Amino acid sequence: MMKSLFLILTLSVSVISFAQNGIVIHVDGQTTDLSGATYNVVAPSNASFDIPLDVENHTGAPRQWRITRLRIDAPAGWTDALCWGHATDPFGGTCYSSAQMNTNPWTTPGSQAVLFTLNDGEYGKLKASVDPADGVYGTAHYRYYVSANGVNYSDSIDVVVDYLASVKPIKEDAAVTIYPNPSSESISIQLAGMDQSNLKMMDAVGNVIMKETIHGSKKLNVSDLSNGVYFLVFETANGKTITKKLVVRH
Predict the structure, then answer these.
(1) What's the rounded Cα separation, in Å, for the pair 77 and 131?
(2) Virtual CA dihedral for 26, 202, 83, 113, nearest 10 degrees?
(3) Which residues pair with 155 in a beta bridge?
(4) Distance in angstroms between the alpha carbons of the first and the last residue of the chain
(5) Which domains does the chain show, CATH number per domain?
(6) Which end of the chain is more exposed for a tag (fewer CB within 10 A), N or C?
């Protein structure tokens, strides 16, 4: 009895320490801290979809974190992948396919080629992708740990995905067309497979220079922009992001 009570108290202390360790995890665009908690999501179809998460550093010191994925349970044939990078990375960080994530648990590499520094007050983008198998309905449970070495975990978030038989498949994949490209005066944006999208335009070093909501189509003036490369990041209704490169040449 005393041993069981000690175990319960130990687990309680662990949960409390997670909440006070200076790490905040939330769904991108939301503010609720999900550190040590569970996030439930319904798969929109049998197609692969993304779950965008932000991992904020409020520890008071720079960190080079790695992400460990633990697959607790998943129906046969389901696969998963993830991307992990600095919030200012216009390409969304380094992405790893289900084939690369071939162990359970699996941890992002610790080489300098993919490590990056999160200063205090900055955050990293964790994009978890789940691909339910066609016709294989059920529930999958994943846990994503945050750590410096892939062993001593500092925080975590659980993601539970439900793929229900009543979910209707998406008729058309979301897509974006931009033309002309390169451009000197203006560009036309055409959305497909979605009614609207939140647009974020960034320069080559990741500075956000514009935010706007696009409904169907839009014409944007780029004549005031300097020559160079820009990145247009579109967010779909299910949280997926589409990045397009734009070249401005006067």
Answers:
(1) 9
(2) -120
(3) 146
(4) 77
(5) 16-163 (2.60.40.10), 175-248 (2.60.40.3080)
(6) N
Alpha-carbon dihedral angle through residues 116, 84, 199, 224, given to the nearest 10 degrees: 20
Return the H-helix or E-strand segment holding 161. strand 153-163
- Alpha helical stretches, state H, 20-93: none
The β-bridge relationship of strands 228-235 and 79-86 is: unpaired
Q: Do 245 and 178 contact (CB within 8 A), yes or no?
A: no
Q: Residue 21: which residues within 8 A CB-CB, separation 6 or more?
A: 59, 154, 155
| pLDDT for residue 112 is more than 60 | yes
On whether the CB atoms of residues 229 and 246 are closer than 8 A, the answer is yes
Contact 68, 106 (CB under 8 A): yes
Spatial distance between the Cα atoms of 200 and 212, rounded to a whole number of angstroms: 7
- Going across the sheet that includes 196-203, the strands are 208-215, 196-203, 228-235, 241-248
Write the pLDDT tens digit of every residue in 173-190.
788 999 999 999 999 999
- Close Cβ partners of 212 (under 8 Å, ≥ 6 residues apart): 198, 199, 218
Cα 208 to its chain centre, rounded Å, is 18
Residue type, 195: D
d(CA 54, CA 33): 10
Q: Give the rounded distance of the alpha carbon of 161 from its chain centre.
A: 15
Dihedral (Cα; 147, 151, 152, 155), 10-degree rounding: 40
208: tokens are 């956000």
CB 243 within 8 A of CB 90: yes
